[in-house]
Amino acid sequence: MLKTLIASTLLTVSGLAAAAPETFAVDPGHTVVTFEITHMAMSTHRGHFEAREGSIVLDRVAKTGSADITIDTNTLSVAMPAFQATLKGERLFNVGLNPVARFVGDAFTFDGDTLSSVSGTMTILGKSQPVTLKAVRFTCFMSPLVKREVCGGDFETTIQRSQFGLGFAPTIAPDNVRLLIQVEAIKQS
Q1: Which CATH architecture has domain 20-187?
Q2: pLDDT tens digits along 81-91
Q3: How many whole angstroms separate alpha carbon 146 and alpha carbon 184?
Q4: 145: which DSSP letter?
């Protein structure tokens, strides 16, 4: 019995030592960046962008990772067509000249085995700023639909839009913009 326990322990330890980073492809259909900005201190405008592509590398044993996610700015959507046109126009996102925004995460922080944050650089309108995304939830499971492991979660942060050159109409909307990020990614073989 002692031999079995020792052999089992050695196999487990050697399996952990052999663990390597795993690559996950971002699922654009399940990856959305929602933004919230107050309108004249009365209400909250919400809109969203969709991911175009991306990858996440995760090493659960070493508790490290990286992320590279491209957001399609032309997918910007809000409830009011006139406001949406203004946001996509030359004074703000200028989607014709700036078709993508990008987040590159290079520092994953864990609390025990749980991912707690991802830090990196957000680039909007060609301007890059450091950003830390707080993990509200994050988990991985074997998906019965795609027959592969899927990891995903919800993240949030607040940015100052003026740091990215989005300073239009400061009397109408404050500088702080809350980002709520939903991401899912499928393990690659």
Answers
A1: Beta Barrel (2.40)
A2: 998 998 899 88
A3: 12
A4: T
